[in-house]
Amino acid sequence: MSRSLHLVDVFTDRPCTGNQLAVVTGAKGLTARQMQAFAREMNFSETTFVMADRPAGGAWPVRIFTPAEEVPFAGHPTLGSAHVIRHVLLGGRVERVTLSLAAGPIPVVYEREGKRELYWMRQNAPTFGRRLSRREVAPVLGLAPSDLDAAPIEEVSTGLPFVIVPVRTKKALERIRVNRDLLLKFVAGLDAKAILAFAKGANGSGHHLTARVFVDYYGIPEDPATGSANGCLAAWLVQHRWLGDDAIDVRVEQGMSIGRPSVLHLKAMRTSRRIEVRVGGGVVDVARGTLLAARLA
Known about the structure:
Layout: E1 2-10, E2 19-25, H1 32-42, E3 46-50, E4 60-65, E5 70-71, H2 75-89, E6 96-101, E7 104-113, E8 116-122, E9 127-132, H3 134-141, E10 153-157, E11 161-166, H4 170-174, H5 180-188, E12 195-200, E13 209-215, E14 220-223, H6 227-239, E15 247-254, E16 262-270, E17 275-281, E18 283-292
Parallel strand pairs: 2-3, 4-6, 11-12, 13-15
Antiparallel strand pairs: 1-2, 1-18, 3-4, 4-5, 6-7, 7-8, 8-17, 9-10, 10-11, 12-13, 13-14, 15-16, 16-17
Helix pairs in contact: 3-5
């Protein structure tokens, strides 16, 4: 049996930048073991599997695997999978695609802004968890406690939890060298298994923040563009009014330190009921081929 394989780059408008994603369509019948084996073979941050050739109850069932394990939600796999479904399975005729993920239904909306094509996902309402001290976090990142901002270091989730770490300066952010052993010990007692560190300032015109995301627990030391983590960051920025407002509209650079420059668009606002979070970015096609399912381990 053969299935289609699509390689795309997400949170970019140029091939071979942004975050790589492999999307397998027509994945019905693949076992979790086969999907995990193929995700390990690809060794991208994530590989996704579209489990049906039509939506069920208005949503497309999609499963997401890192090289190490399945996850309930991730940002760039959501946008990249929606792009493949929209263009390949639906012929580009719709402006909205809803994915059915383990974390719940996630709607993705296609928008055109001038020459730019962006996909936007509305993430789940955020939850805020444990707060951590600068003294316990700084050694994990190879920094001094004084390199970290005084604002709360906190677990946040919009579907997948992350530890959000504000860093005082962009130069300190660039100095981060993760101690892998300390990182794995650090996350062992947390719901969050990955860290997003960020600081004010960016290289590109019109960009506001720079972020780095460390995901050794999931088999990838540093991720080039992480929509799930940046959704948590957007919620954190509003929760603590770190930019001085209850609403944000910012662009975040990520991946510069590992040669995969990416730009993530974040919008979030506090309403009377909750914080609403949207994360957007571009998606570009790179390659298409065939997955030989019968040969998977």
